[in-house]
Structure formats: structure tokens, C-alpha cells
UniProtKB/TrEMBL annotation:
Residues 121-223 form the Hemimethylated DNA-binding domain. Residues 1-20 form the signal peptide. The keyword Phosphoprotein does not apply. It comes from Formicarius rufipectus. Keywords: Signal. GO terms for molecular function: DNA binding. This is FBX21 protein. It comes from the Eukaryota. PANTHER family: HEMIMETHYLATED DNA-BINDING DOMAIN-CONTAINING PROTEIN (PTHR48439).
Length: 233
């Protein structure tokens, strides 16, 4: 489709206006009908020639089509860029976690499912400081599942046939105290492998403030968003 700019539109308008204008001018100057017919024919031919060059020419249509495709590709590229940015932005926003947000549903004691009512066989609470019986590191509980909530690929090597029963026992997510020098920031362990530490035990971990607002002498105080998930702890 040919592109008609302002100059071309003005030219066509002037040519179309020239026909009636020439007719009236020829009357005032006393030209005879034969002269007027010749002038009108010449103007008509000129107008038709200009129109065919801009509207009926294959080159004009080809150039117009190239211009349209170029603009279309530009719009598509901009649209794809916007979609990529949107997907990146919302993807980042979904996985972000701070004092007022929780992560989307996931494994290892991080599910956003509200733990209510609390099963009687879950002994420990979020905010309690514990120690691992076998490895000796200390930490604070930040989440729990009534039974192991992990991918099957994680369970198979951790619980061989002789330990299969542990999958159905409570599991706790723990922020490991950096002072222990254990090398791992978190752990997900069954209830039988940990025990409560009585008395004050300061836990050093970069994510402590995201989960807790303070310490009441017996356990850490949950942030409001975490308390909503564990209302009975």
C-alpha cells in the first residue's frame, strides 16, 4: 500500500482543483470551447498519469508494502520486548520474599498453607532453638510439615528402606546458626534428629529479621506474616 504524505496529498488536491478552476478562468478570458476542451483534456491526462504513478504502479505498491512490513516488525519487536520484561518483572516479584511477603507454594517447610489445626504429634514450634543430635549444629525452626514434603528424588537417597517410616514423621526447616561453622545455611530434618535447647541461645543468620522480630526469653517471636501460617505455635 503506497504511503501518501502531506506533499502528495496537496499535489493531488491541487490537480483536482485545477479542473473546475481552469474551466471558470477560460470563460472569463473568452476562450472558445475547442480550446477549453483541449486544456481540460491535458489536465485530465496529467491527473490520471500522476494517479497511476502513485496508486497503480507496482513499484509504488512494493515500496509501500516494504514500509508497512518494516513498521510491523518494529511493533512486534517492541511487543516482544514488553512481554519479556513483564515476564521477568512478575517472575522476580513472585519469588521475592521480605518481611511482609511469603514465597509461593514450595517444598521443605516453605509451603504457604496455613498449619491449622496443628496436629498433636508435631511437638516443636516455630521460633524454638534446637540442636541436631548427630551433627551438633544449632539453629531456629522457621517452618514445619506434618510429614516430609519434598520431591521424591530427594527422599529416595535420604531415606533408604530401613528408614522409610521417617517420611511420615514431622519435618522441620531450620536456619542454621552461622557461629557453628557448619557450612550450610538451612536444613530440613525429621523430628527425631533434633532436640530443644533450654535457655538463651543466640542464632546468627542473615535471614533472622525476615522471620522474627525479637526474642522473648524462650523462643523467637514470629513476624506477622509467619504467625499467620503457624497460628498455634
Amino acid at each position: 500500500m503506497p504511503h501518501i504524505n502531506a506533499a502528495a496529498a496537496l499535489q493531488v488536491s491541487m490537480l483536482l482543483f485545477a479542473l473546475p478552476a481552469q474551466y471558470f478562468i477560460s470563460q472569463w478570458y473568452g476562450m472558445d470551447s475547442a480550446d477549453r476542451i483541449q486544456i481540460i483534456e491535458r489536465l485530465t491526462i496529467a491527473s490520471w498519469s500522476s494517479s497511476t504513478r502513485s496508486c497503480l504502479s507496482l513499484d509504488a505498491w512494493a515500496n509501500g508494502l516494504k514500509l508497512w512490513l518494516s513498521k510491523t516488525r518494529t511493533c512486534l519487536n517492541v511487543g516482544l520486548l514488553i512481554l519479556h520484561f513483564r515476564d521477568w518483572y512478575y517472575g522476580e516479584k513472585q519469588t521475592k520474599s521480605d518481611d511482609n511477603e511469603v514465597k509461593p507454594y514450595s517444598y521443605f517447610g516453605e509451603s504457604t498453607h496455613v498449619r491449622s489445626p496443628k496436629p498433636e504429634h508435631v511437638q516443636f514450634r516455630v521460633g524454638q532453638v534446637v540442636i541436631h543430635k548427630r551433627f551438633g549444629y544449632s539453629g531456629v525452626i522457621v517452618g514445619w510439615d506434618a510429614k516430609a514434603n519434598t520431591p521424591e528424588a530427594w527422599l529416595l537417597p535420604k531415606y533408604p528402606p530401613r528408614k522409610q517410616d521417617l517420611k511420615d514423621t514431622p519435618h522441620y526447616r531450620i536456619l542454621i546458626n552461622k557461629a557453628n561453622g557448619f557450612g550450610k545455611p538451612t536444613a530440613y530434618v525429621p523430628e527425631e534428629e533434633i532436640t530443644i535447647i533450654m535457655g538463651l541461645e543466640v542464632v546468627h543468620h542473615p535471614d533472622m529479621e525476615a522471620y522474627f522480630s525479637g526474642y522473648d526469653g524462650t523462643k523467637y517471636i514470629m513476624q506477622p506474616w509467619l504467625k499467620k501460617l503457624y497460628p498455634h505455635d
